[in-house]
Amino acid sequence: MITATGGNNGGAGIGGGWDGAGGAVEITGGTVFAQGVSGGTDIGPGNYGAASGSNTFTGGSIRLANGTIAPAPSNGTARVWCVTVPGLVPGATVVITSLDSYGVNDLFADENGNIYLWLPNGNHTFSANGALYVAAVEDADAMATTWHFYIAAFALADGTAALTLASQLDPDVFATWIATATFTVRFCTNLTEAAWTSFPAPERDGTTLTVPFSADLPSAFLRVLTQ
After folding, report:
1. Assigned CATH for 150-226
2. Order of strands, edge to edge, in the sheet holding 2-5?
3. Mean pLDDT for each consecutive 10-residue tract of the chain (227 residues)?
């Protein structure tokens, strides 16, 4: 684990001092915390310094205290963005699987239970300490989530409600996950009271869940839970 803090006179966390340029930085794994001081970038030039060199991230949990880095980082081929992975035990070792070609050795969650991966545009599916995460990167920093599905369509017919599920997961991964998941559908007619009532166990046909829904039931809010 590396903690790098700039000097008091405008130094970068990793890079140049006052009026100093950055350089060539390559991080392939491990846990890094970088913090610039008095106008210095977290990684790159110091205060009043010119951005130069390159920042190449092909692995690791890299946390920028102020979110400042120059030049913009890449994996050597494409621009990469910070993906925050939450929900981990603070200070614990983190084991990542299914991130091909990204270095995941010696990762530790910070005091908030987060790690910080740097990934290119696209949908990324991976596990962290056994929990399945998905992250959608689109030219901006992103937050990984364990929300594996959403309701893409809803229909009422013949006394039943049909809810169609969709996901950001890769189709094969989603199909495998949904095959072992257990779903509960609940309804509530008054959110103030939050008196949620479970329907009977839903029937599942592929990505469609079906539950009985009486036409006499007043307007209701629905919630779908899984484990």
Report:
1. 2.60.40
2. 2-5, 24-35, 54-64
3. 91 94 95 96 95 96 97 97 97 95 97 98 92 93 89 86 85 85 84 76 92 72 82
